[in-house]
Specification:
With 177 residues, the protein is of the alpha/beta class. It has a single domain, classed as Glutaredoxin (3-Layer(aba) Sandwich), CATH 3.40.30. Helices cover 33% and strands 20% of the residues. It is built from five helices and seven strands; from the N terminus they run αβββαβαβαββα.
C-alpha cells in the first residue's frame, strides 16, 4: 500500500504533461537578415538570430509585426506554438512574425524547438537576458509592434486560439485578416 501511495504522485505528474504534435521544419532555422529595425542611439536589448547571422536590438524592431517571446522549457509556449504556426501559414503575406527565445540553458535548445514545431519565421536568442529591461519577464508574451517600432499592445500569457490572435492583430496593428 505504501508503494502505491508513493507511486501515485509520480503517475499524476507524468500524466499531466503537455502533449504536443511536432510539426517538422526540414531541419532549418530561418535567417534574420530581412528583419526591419528602427534607428536607435543605444543598444540595450541585444539578441542574436538563431542561425547566427545577425544581432539586433530587440527594442528597435520595426513593424507591423507580432513578436512572440518564448522558451523551449515553457509548457504554455509549447501549447500555443501550433497556433502561431497556423497563423504564419495563413497570414505571412500580410503581417510579419518574429520570435525571441529567452532563459535558455543553451542556444541548441531553442534551435531544436523551432525545428520541432515547424517554426518558419525568424527567431532570436537572448543569451544574456538583455530583453528583461525592455520587454519584461515572463513567457509566453506576444507584443504587437507598429510601423514606427512602438509596442501598441502586450498579450501576456497564452494565446488560446487562431481567432484570438487574428482579432488582436486586426485590432492593434490594423491588418485586415
Amino acid at each position: 500500500m505504501k508503494k502505491l501511495l508513493l507511486a501515485l504522485p509520480l503517475v499524476l505528474l507524468v500524466g499531466c504533461g503537455q502533449s504536443t504534435t511536432a510539426l517538422p521544419n526540414d531541419g532549418i532555422v530561418v535567417n534574420c537578415e530581412d528583419v526591419a529595425t528602427v534607428t536607435t542611439k543605444s543598444e540595450v536589448a541585444l539578441v542574436q538570430c538563431l542561425d547566427g547571422s545577425r544581432t539586433i536590438d530587440a527594442s528597435a524592431i520595426k513593424g507591423p509585426v507580432l513578436l512572440n517571446v518564448w522558451g523551449s522549457w515553457c509548457a504554455p509556449c509549447k501549447e500555443e506554438m501550433p497556433i502561431f504556426v497556423d497563423f504564419y501559414n495563413k497570414h505571412s503575406e500580410r503581417v510579419d512574425l518574429l520570435g525571441i527565445s529567452v532563459e535558455e540553458a543553451d542556444i541548441e535548445d531553442a534551435r531544436s524547438f523551432v525545428k520541432r514545431y515547424g517554426v518558419k519565421w525568424p527567431n532570436f536568442y537572448d543569451a544574456k537576458g538583455t530583453t528583461r529591461g525592455t520587454l519584461g519577464m515572463g513567457v509566453p508574451m506576444t507584443l504587437f509592434i507598429d510601423e514606427k517600432g512602438v509596442v501598441v499592445h502586450e498579450k501576456i500569457g497564452v494565446v488560446n486560439s487562431l481567432s484570438e490572435l487574428e482579432d488582436l492583430t486586426s485590432k492593434y496593428l490594423g491588418v485586415e485578416l
